[in-house]
Input
Amino acid sequence: MKLDNMFKKTRLPRRKGVGFADTSADTAKPEIPEGLLRKCNMCKAAIMTEDVEAGGYICPKCGGYFRVHAYRRIEMITDENTFEEWDRGLATKNPLKFKGYEEKLNALQEKTGLDEAVVTGKAKIGGVETVLGVCDGRFLMASMGEVVGEKIAKAVERATEQRLPVIFFTCSGGARMQEGIVSLMQMAKTSAALKRHSDAGLLYITVLTDPTTGGVTASFAMLGDVILAEPKALIGFAGPRVIGQTIGQKLPAGFQRSEFLLEHGFIDGIVERFQVKETLSLLLKLHADHPMESGTAGKPMVVSREWRDTKTVSAWERVLASRKKDRPVGKDYIDLLFTDFTELHGDRYFADDKAVIGGIARFHGMPVTVLAQEKGRDTKENIQRNFGMPSPDGYRKSLRLMKQAEKFHRPVICFVDTPGAFCGIEAEERGQAEAIARNIYEMSALKVPVLSIVIGEGGSGGALAMATADEVWMLENSVYSILSPEGFASILWKDSAKAQEAAEVMKLTAADLYEQGIVEQVLPEPPDYTVQNMKEVTDLLEKRIEGFLEQYVNIDTEALTQRRYERFRKM
Ligand SMILES: [Zn+2]
Output
């Protein structure tokens, strides 16, 4: 299943025929025993407790999310009877000898049946074993005291020992004031345990639920390889009330909600509650096989070097073909060549740049990381995706996903299609050049195979930042150059109208670049190439990618990076 579908914000089907919607209008209200009704704190409607429970703790009237108790959450997302709880009953100390603290804890334990604000253990999700931790907001707003930190650190350490993934559902007010500095230290303790888990090459996923704030957000919540969030959850460091009071300004609508974090590049996706289990299960499965060992079946690569005679089509005609409005775009290739594509979002610094699509997918069953510079399919999408001109955030997102691929031994496949990196004030402010440089630098030594395919325009450094690869291929009518012909003509001849002439001297066609040894393969295109006849190209591309992976996944890391080094060294 595509995560496109998973992340899409569908509403839980409303329960029809329950009938309680009309009862408020009745003058003679029926007698309802205590506990059968709950009031939604968002739409204020009275709703039946059993409907809330059966509907995944989602208000059947407004779709608002109720907070879920830890054990209920575990029931909702794990395979039946697979949860084994760990470390229950660790004694809470009272480091500040805070008056009434112990009594408060005892009362909460009695009332909630929890021993502390987090439940940890091991379970199966979709048949894959994982370590799991779930915070429970009923217990001092799931603030992180020593026991919470200890349970989390222990769970992560055991996951590292047993080589298991970790999933944490967060919700927290932050540090636990009653424990003072000891509480603060839990941020370091949990993060340090997670660093070791990550260094062991293991997967960590967080699911942020309402509210996740303070020291929990600033430690284990934000460290996931993949960070998901429930819709509209409040997620931040300082709470909105504190910020509002401190700066004396009205905060923007939706401030610190999941949607705000997605837009600002801090989370990979928003998942509806009833899709959380399926999403986690897919992500666990995509990380369960060691990609470079699973291999693909197929024959060694036989490269055909046949494409239409370059003499009959001028370079300028190819430039125009590469820019044609109905030419297939990045997402079209992703849809046709891969399965289980799971889009991940954000650079974790500033934004989610829509000019770059990235995520995990399978190619012939093998997990791979896919990145595509994306122009969009129609005018509306062109604008949304900035005509395929990435901002620094787009390069940083792609680098984040490439480093993730390296951690999990996944080959990287990039589709290059950009007129160039975005040229604008904001892009410069955020370090466009630094972002491009960093990508080239890191890609040159990435410890997994990297294949880049120029499918349209390969514009300058903006293209190279996703094409510092083991092999670079081009479609017959794609172009790859130092600059656009218009720019070239304008710089060298002070006349951008001479673009056509420039195209002829720039040696920017696939055939030219193949002759110069800049690219390894050129793939033929049908005349009038569109999505309609795209399969002609992707069928061949599929065979070639299979051949590439066959050839590259078994090369040891050192030989692989040495080979890439030499590829560029000789240019
Ligand atoms: Zn409601």
In short: Confidence is low (pLDDT under 50) at residues 1-27, 294-300. The domain at 291-569 is CATH 3.90.226.10 (2-enoyl-CoA Hydratase; Chain A, domain 1). The radius of gyration is 27 Å.
